[in-house]
Amino acid sequence: MRMKKFINEPTNLVGELLEGMVLAFPDKVQLSGRNIVARAWPKESGKVRLVTLGGSGHEPGLSGFVGEGMLDYSVAGGIFAAPGAPRCLEGIRSACAEGASALLIVLNHAGDVLSGNIAMEMALREGLKIKMIITHEDIAGGPNLEDRRGLVGFFPVYKVAGAAAEQGASLDACLEIAERMERNMRSLAVAVNTATHPSTGQPIFELGDDEMEIGMGQHGEAGTGRMKLKSADETAEIMLNMLLSDLQVATGEEILVLINGAGATTLMELLIVFRRVAQVLTAKKIKLIRSAVGEFITTQEQAGFQMLIARMDPELIELWDAPADAPFFVKR
Question: Quick one: 240 and 110 in the same domain?
Answer without folding.
Answer: no
